[in-house]
Amino acid sequence: MARVRTIAALVLAAALALALSVPAEAQQKATLVFSSGPTGGSWIPMAGATAELVKKTFPEIEIQVEPGAALVNMEKMRNDKADLGWSMTTVLYDARNGRGQWTGKQTDRPMYVASYYPNVWQLVVPADSAIKSVKDLKGKPVALPARGNTSLADGWEHLLKVNGMKLDDLGPKSYGPVASNAETMKNRQALAAGWFTTVPASFILDLGSTMKLRMIPVGDQDFAKIKEINPGFVRHAIKAGTYAEQGMPDAIQTFQSPTILIASSKASADAVYKITKAIVEGRADLANVTKAMQGVTAQDMAQDVGLPYHPGAAKYYKEKGLLK
User: Fold this and answer.
1) Where are the beta strands (DSSP E) in the chain?
2) DSSP annotation string for 20-56
3) pLDDT tens for each residue of 117-145
4) Which of 16, 83, 278, 292 has fewest C-beta within 10 Å?
């Protein structure tokens, strides 16, 4: 009997030793809400791929993906209704500094985790239309992103402003997600649609299968004015040949704001550390969702955008020598 008690004690001691060898945080499951993007865009599938990548690497972390948009995501995080979300450098800059739409609503809740890929402004019109500049859109029917979407506030409204125009100067307006914008143009109920998205943009490839298109470029003078509005914007050139089959064979000058992953300051540093590790080390899997992630390096994802890192992300980058 004494021998049985001794064996039982040894088994119990081994079990306790094993439990103690696993950090308490690692034994705790974490469920986080990821506010992604509008239907029809790249942000929802990218959020899903990110969630799967994290769960594959760290099964104790459950990420629930729900629709959103850059401005919507920031508002949800400000009100503690989202733990993770997509954003853009420009939106995060404004929210943390109480500028633009965030005047009077300054918040330090959202923090930077990682950069993913360029989020490029792309405004297209039918090639057979007479529209060759933003000013030519005056009085014309347009398909616009839903209110609360960054593509409306930081894309359309900024471009119109630097051209001395407002939304009211446009003709009939159809608001909705990117997929419905494309359908509206296909039906000739609108003569323009513009979004911040990946290159090549799915809505342009879709539209280009039914009509030849023209992209409205952003000149140096307009970009300089846009940069004054928000220093987070970056100049961008779409490479020649990208949209040749859609009727646009030449390089196109425009601008972009990097797509970034943000996390609430209330999110566990341990969970965000694991998320950062999973996405950086498993980034090759994300290229299966969008070509924009092909060739992205760990240094690219860790790049300093001049905004505060989440402590969990900073810990990982410092361990890997990606951040001083």
Assistant:
1) 30-35, 61-66, 84-88, 110-117, 120-126, 142-145, 173-176, 193-197, 213-215, 234-238, 252-256, 259-264
2) HHS-HHHHS-EEEEEE---TTSSHHHHHHHHHHHHHH
3) 888 999 999 999 999 999 999 999 999 99
4) 16
Rounded to an integer, what distance in angstroms lies between the CA atom of residue 324 and that of residue 321? 7
Domains of the chain are 28-116+260-319 (3.40.190.10), 120-256 (3.40.190.10)
C-beta separation of 24 from 72 below 8 A: no
CA distance 222 to 254: 10
How would you class 127 by CB atoms within 10 Å of its CB: exposed for 0-12, middle for 13-18, buried for 19 or more? middle
Given a contact cutoff of 8 angstroms between Cβ atoms, the answer to whether 112 and 307 are in contact is: yes
**pTM (whole model) above 0.70:** yes
Q: Reduced to 3 states, what is the DSSP secondary structure of residue 125?
A: strand
